[in-house]
Specification:
The protein is mainly α. Helix content is 77%, strand content 0%. The protein folds into 2 domains: 1-55, Arc Repressor Mutant, subunit A, CATH 1.10.10; 66-187, no CATH class.
Length: 187
């Protein structure tokens, strides 16, 4: 029953975020939407910010549990931005609230998860040094995070989908080149 209640609270919260900014959503409204008491909400979460943090952490856990290989940059970008694309308006409202840092951290972590899988898959027989792997993942994840944040800053006038298309077109092959450069620097 606890998991069911948490899922209902999270779903109601995402629905509300699609309609209005985070700072305009109250615990009372979430509880009423779910047909629960405020005490039940507080049994699961401290406040709406704790709920948001839990929502992001749940999404990160889902990504980590998804053990599929990421064979193309496009696939990595699609997976890393899936939640943001599926919940575009909610993400926009989170961005325009006091929880911007929490959103930025989530975007970076989700991009890191999938870019690590992509880079590791591109290594082939070459075993990339952990420091080099971290550097490549850091740069790719930072690029994705920054691009999505800029899309949000522009008020969603650009699309994540066009970002993915452009990044794939412009950067396809650069990861293999970076891996090759790492290999050459070790010789």
């Amino acid at each position: 029953m606890t998991k069911f209640t948490e899922q209902a609270i999270q779903a109601a919260f995402i629905d509300m975020l699609a309609e209005r900014p985070l700072d305009k959503i109250t615990v009372r409204e979430i509880a009423e939407s779910c047909g629960i008491s405020r005490n039940t909400f507080y049994y699961h979460y401290h406040d709406v910010y704790d709920l948001l943090d839990t929502l992001f952490k749940s999404e990160e856990e889902r990504m980590l549990a998804d053990l599929r290989d990421v064979s193309t940059m496009r696939q990595g970008l699609v997976e890393a931005t899936r939640f943001a694309v599926e919940n575009r308006k909610a993400i926009y409202h989170i961005y325009n609230s006091v929880s911007r840092d929490m959103l930025s951290s989530y975007l970076y972590k989700s991009a890191s998860i999938y870019m690590r899988r992509y880079v590791t898959g591109q290594c082939g027989d070459y075993e990339l040094d952990e420091k080099d792997l971290e550097d490549i993942v850091f740069l790719l994840a930072s690029m994705i995070e920054g691009a999505v944040i800029n899309i949000l800053r522009e008020g969603l006038s650009l699309s994540v989908e066009s970002l993915i298309d452009n990044a794939t077109r412009l950067f396809d092959g650069t990861v293999k080149l970076a891996i090759e450069n790492c290999r050459k620097s070790k010789l």
